[in-house]
Amino acid sequence: MQGTVLLQTFSALVTAKPKRNVQLCCMLDGGANKSFILREVVELLDLKVVDKEALVIHTFGSEAAEKRTYDIVEITLQNVQANKKIKIQAVVIDSITSARIQVPSKFIRNIALERGIELADNSTSERIHVLIGSDYISEILGERNIRISKRLIAVDSIFGYLVQGKEGEVNCKDISANPLIVENEELDLDRVRNLWSLETIGINPDNKVPLSDKEILKSFEQNTVYTNKRYETQLLWKEDSRELKSKYEIAKRRLFGLSKTLEKNEELYLKYDELIKEHLRDGIVERVNINLDKNINTGYYLPHHAIVREQKDSTKVRIVFYASSKGKGALSLNDCLETGPNSNPDLLKILLRFRLHKVAFWADIQRSFLKIGIVEEDRQFLKFLWIKEGGGSNLDLSTPNRNFSLHEKEFCCQVQPILTGHSHKTARGKICK
Question: Longest Cα pair distance anywhere in the chain, in angstroms?
């Protein structure tokens, strides 16, 4: 063999009991649509089974596949050098591959060191403990690629740079091919049973809420309090929220772009400005005094824009705050927040309740999303910029603009439905008690 073919391998730390770190060898595989972990690793780390799933696994070159029920475990993988991590769910399997997976050679490591590239794989093991499929690859890979040679590139990730390609010319007889297609057995092999299940909709008990969602709900209920004639709650943070940057410059540039639009539409500017003043009067937002030399790198700044709905009888202009804003290789506010379970009411149950009585009542909570308060320590992550008072729609970026933070919530955020839906459920539960 005159050279080596490198796959996207990396090293990751896992905290085991008693408080010690175990380093695992992992690999990204875009040809797999599920993630896998060795059973011996699960037993070593004493990982708890969070779910079971009936799956059919099709391996490369196989004609037939076996139907089996597999354990699903949850594991948090952490960067060896930095505090970056990801929580995944993986299928427990006895063997991932019998092939020897090559790791970057000393020659490649020296090239990376000269170029200031931090390689993700610092191990010498050729055995894979965890295989990450396409279900999590997008959360791991970054946006930057560095070409090391004609056939070798380094791909950015939260674990460092993953080296992939040919190291020199290759005349290799051993080939590692790892595409895996995993089918949910419930979807393809038991269609007749699904027909029967349609007959029992609303009769059989609902599917169990996953353990992770139960923990989120428990945390939410513990951190929700009734104060000043409203409910206040904390944002549902993930473990890696410390990596969140303020995005002040991005919010400032977005405001500059918005001002260009408002210059062309004076009527929209007046409605926009009046909405912010109305939110200020109602206590939905508060004015924040910020020292631009010291405080702009704390918390998080939300870009915002207007949604115009002329067909609406009531609110024709609505301000939407965008919580998915992020710079290159950085996290957004949405990336740092849990989504939680679906809190929307069951449509079937609503339709059935309409048949119980002769008269049905329907009501809507005006500005429902604005009824839930955010605790003071989390408001710094809901800051936004607005044009200085008396400046009209013309924006001068050379001078400080007005800073506000949201008391209540009205922003394009993945955690928003759970905060609203479960706040209402929590309120109903306490009233009934």
Answer: 82
Please report the DSSP string for 13-37 in residue order. EEEETTTEEEEEEEEE-TTBSS-EE
Pairing of strands 130-132, 36-38: antiparallel
pLDDT tens profile 23-32: 899 999 888 8
Signed CA dihedral, 120, 123, 126, 130: sign only? negative
Q: Is the peptide bond before 18 cis (omega within 30 degrees of 0)?
A: yes
| 302 contacts 323 by C-beta, under 8 angstroms | yes
Among 135, 155, 159, smallest CA distance to 145 is for: 155
- 3-class DSSP state for residue 119? strand
Residues of the chain below pLDDT 70: 1-3, 17-19, 60-65, 168-212, 240-242, 292-295, 312-315, 343, 364-371, 390-433
C-alpha 87/C-alpha 338 separation (Å) is 12
